[in-house]
Amino acid sequence: MSEIGTTAVIGTGNIGGTLGRAFARAGHAVVFGSRNPAASEAAGDTGAKVATPEEAVAAADTVLLAIPADDVQAFLRTHADALAGKLVLDATNRFPLPVLHSADLVRAMVPTARYARAFNSQAWETFADPRWDGEPGHLFYTVFDAADAPTVEALISAVGLVPAFAGLGRPDLLDAALFLMVPAYETHGRRTGLRLVHD
Ligand SMILES: NC(=O)c1ccc[n+]([C@@H]2O[C@H](COP(=O)([O-])OP(=O)(O)OC[C@H]3O[C@@H](n4cnc5c(N)ncnc54)[C@H](OP(=O)(O)O)[C@@H]3O)[C@@H](O)[C@H]2O)c1
């Protein structure tokens, strides 16, 4: 049993599929929430489970949102009761509005849920292959409750990246991290990473 409990990965596309398989390969308990679990091949050879979103949320301690941002509100409305008290980890980006995150939406629709944001500022190609010259890149994250930092850090580490704390309650800075990276993606390609160096 993973120390961070079970992670539900909602959405089995580029982001959800890549992250969920990486979490499972690192030894974490993962259940994908898919609209069509019977047809899904998201788990691959990892041993992760694939279930309906309802079943996945019910089983989870942490719920990673990896669906189109336009669908987040409907997801929260449908699963509000089941999400109560859980950690909602938001990887979604709501384009083209200036605010990309769903922190306010989560707070309004599931007031007892805890919110964290990560995996929004770099491309899925980086989550699939997180090293450059043999060294891992960094990934920014934020939590509102410091007690949730170890869970988010464990999931970032599971992907092979190094967690970089952006401060408590700063989903705005996680949006900014993406905006700052976009010109580099356009110049150097989507698998462009970030590395913090220090003594
Ligand atoms: N692509 C990237 O590199 C990247 C990077 C950072 C953040 N993001 C964000 O991550 C989220 C997912 O992006 P993606 O590239 O993984 O998209 P994607 O490949 O299209 O996958 C989205 C998944 O969400 C589920 N889904 C689709 N429509 C849905 C709906 N109407 N309601 C509920 N679930 C639905 C589907 O899984 P099922 O069919 O199994 O339900 C689908 O596979 C987006 O918010 C995006 O902004 C993407």
From TrEMBL:
GO molecular function: oxidoreductase activity
Domain Pyrroline-5-carboxylate reductase catalytic N-terminal residue range list: 8-93
Coiled coil start-end: none
Superkingdom, natural source: Bacteria
Pfam families tied to this protein: F420_oxidored (PF03807)
Keyword Cell membrane: no
Keywords, alphabetical: Oxidoreductase
Xref: InterPro entries: NAD(P)-bd_dom_sf, P5C_Rdtase_cat_N, STEAP_metalloreductase
Name the record gives this protein: NADP oxidoreductase
Upper classification of the organism: Bacteria, Bacillati, Actinomycetota, Actinomycetes, Kitasatosporales
